[in-house]
Specification:
The protein is α+β, with helices and mostly antiparallel strands. It has 2 domains: 3-130, Glutathione S-transferase Yfyf (Class Pi), Chain A, domain 2, CATH 1.20.1050; 227-386, OB fold (Dihydrolipoamide Acetyltransferase, E2P) (Beta Barrel). It is built from 12 helices and 15 strands. The strands form 5 sheets. Strands 3-2-1-4-7 form a 5-stranded antiparallel beta sheet. A 3-stranded antiparallel beta sheet has the order 9-8-15, with no helix packed on it.
Length: 387
C-alpha cells in the first residue's frame, strides 16, 4: 500500500487515541497496514472483529475484477449494519481503516457502478460525515433519492371543479355575445332559434362530458393512508402466558419505554410458546385503540411476518442495539402519528397490504425498510406479508 495511504490511516487513528503520529513514522516506512495498525491500536486493545477488518484492508486487491468482488462482499456485510463493528451508530477504528483503503477505488468508479453498492455508499457517506479526513480524502458525492408526493384525489377534484367553473363562465359569456349579435342582425325570431340550438348543443355536451368522466371516477383508487399515521415502536416482552379462554391467543406484557408495561393479546399460540417470547424484542403498533379480546384488554398490535399459506408466523425482529421504545421510521416518509387510530376510518386496513418482507427477510413498506437506529427490522420468513 502507498505510503500516503498509510499516513492517512496512521494520522486518523492517532487523532482518535490522542497519540503523536510522528511516533509511528518508522512503522509507516517499513510496516504493512496490519502491523502499523496493530502497533497503534495496542493501547486500545483491539477486538478480534477490528483485527478482521485490518486483515481485510491489508489484503484488499488492486486489480479491477477482484476489487469489485471485495466491495460486493462489503456491501452484503453492511446490509443490516450502520457501522462495521458494534451494533450501534458509533464509528470505530475498523470503519476508518476500511474507508481509507477503499476510498480511491470508489472515487474512480462510474456512477452506474457505484449504484451497484448502495449499502457501501450509505456507510461511506456516514463515515465521511462522522470522521475528519481533512483535505487528504475528497468527499464522495452521494446522490440522494427525492420523494415526490402523488397528487391527491382531493387536489385533482378541486382542479377539475375550477376548470368546469371556468368553462361554464366562458359558455355563458359566449351565449350572451351571440344573443346580442343575433338581435342586432336577425331580429327576435332568429334570436329564439339561436338560443334553442345553443341550449341543445350545451345539453348534449354536458351529457357527453358526464358519460366520459363517469368510468374514470369509478376506476380512481381510494385515497392512500400514509404509513406515518402508525406509531410503530420497538418493544421488549417481559412476560407471556396463554389466554385464559382462547386456545389460539397469547397475552404479553411489553415494555416500550413507558412508565408501565403494555398488555397485548396476540394470535400466536399456534406458532410460539409463552417461554419463546419472554425477553424477546418485537415491533408493535402502539396507537391502536385499546379493546378487549375474549374479555382480556389489549393495548397494542405485535407486527408479525406470515408465509403465503400462513403455515409459519413469527414476530418481526428489531436489530440488536435498537432502543426499547424508539419509533420505527421509513426513509422519505415524514409525519406525526395519530394519537389513536380511528377504527371507523379503517386506516390500518389500508396500510397493511403494503407491508411485506423482501427476498432478504427485511420488513418493508412499499419496499422501504422498517428502520431503527441500529438497522432494519427483519424476519426469517422471506417474501411474506406483515400484519
Amino acid at each position: 500500500m502507498a505510503r500516503e495511504r498509510k499516513e492517512i490511516i496512521a494520522s486518523t487513528l492517532c487523532k482518535r487515541f490522542s497519540l503523536d503520529a510522528k511516533t509511528f513514522s518508522g512503522d509507516i516506512e517499513t510496516s504493512d497496514v496490519k502491523s502499523l495498525c496493530t502497533n497503534i491500536l495496542k493501547a486500545s486493545q483491539p477486538s478480534n472483529e477490528v483485527m478482521k477488518w485490518i486483515e481485510f484492508a491489508e489484503s484488499f486487491p488492486v486489480d479491477s475484477a477482484a476489487c469489485f468482488e471485495a466491495i460486493n462482499g462489503l456491501n452484503e456485510e453492511l446490509l443490516l449494519k450502520s457501522v462495521l463493528v458494534g451494533k450501534g451508530l458509533t464509528t470505530s477504528e475498523a470503519d476508518v481503516i476500511v474507508y481509507s483503503v477503499i476510498h480511491p477505488f470508489v472515487v474512480a468508479m462510474s456512477k452506474s457502478d457505484r449504484q451497484k453498492f448502495p449499502n457501501v455508499l450509505r456507510w461511506m457517506d456516514y463515515v465521511q460525515n462522522k470522521e475528519d479526513f481533512g483535505d487528504v480524502l475528497e468527499r464522495i458525492s452521494i446522490e440522494r433519492v427525492t420523494f415526490e408526493p402523488p397528487v391527491s384525489k382531493c387536489a385533482a377534484s378541486t382542479s377539475d371543479a375550477k376548470d368546469t367553473a371556468n368553462n361554464t363562465k366562458a359558455d355563458a359569456n359566449a351565449k350572451k355575445d351571440m344573443t346580442k349579435e343575433s338581435k342586432t342582425v336577425n331580429g327576435p325570431e332568429a334570436d329564439k332559434s339561436l338560443q334553442k340550438d345553443s341550449t341543445q348543443k350545451k345539453t348534449k355536451s354536458a351529457k357527453a362530458s358526464v358519460e366520459q368522466k363517469k368510468p374514470e371516477t369509478e376506476a380512481a383508487p381510494k385515497d392512500e393512508v400514509p404509513v406515518t399515521l402508525l406509531n410503530i415502536q420497538v418493544g421488549l416482552i417481559r412476560k407471556a402466558w396463554k389466554h385464559p379462554s382462547a386456545d389460539s391467543l397469547l397475552v404479553e406484557e411489553i415494555d416500550v419505554g413507558e412508565s408501565k408495561v403494555r398488555q397485548v393479546v396476540s394470535g400466536l399460540a399456534k406458532f410460539c410458546s409463552p417461554d419463546d417470547l419472554v425477553n424477546r424484542r418485537v415491533v408493535l403498533i402502539t396507537n391502536v385503540k385499546p379493546g378487549k379480546l375474549r374479555d382480556v384488554v389489549s393495548e397494542g398490535l405485535v407486527l408479525c411476518a406470515s408465509s403465503e399459506d400462513h403455515s409459519a408466523v413469527e414476530p418481526l425482529i428489531p436489530p440488536e442495539g435498537a432502543t426499547v421504545g424508539e419509533r420505527v421510521s421509513f426513509s422519505g416518509h415524514e409525519g406525526k402519528p395519530e394519537d389513536v387510530l380511528n377504527p371507523k376510518k379503517k386506516q390500518l386496513d389500508k396500510i397493511t397490504p403494503h407491508l411485506f418482507t423482501d427476498e432478504n427477510g427485511v420488513a418493508t413498506y412499499k419496499g422501504i425498510p422498517f428502520m431503527t437506529s441500529a438497522g432494519p427490522c427483519t424476519s426469517s420468513i422471506r417474501k411474506g406479508s406483515v400484519k
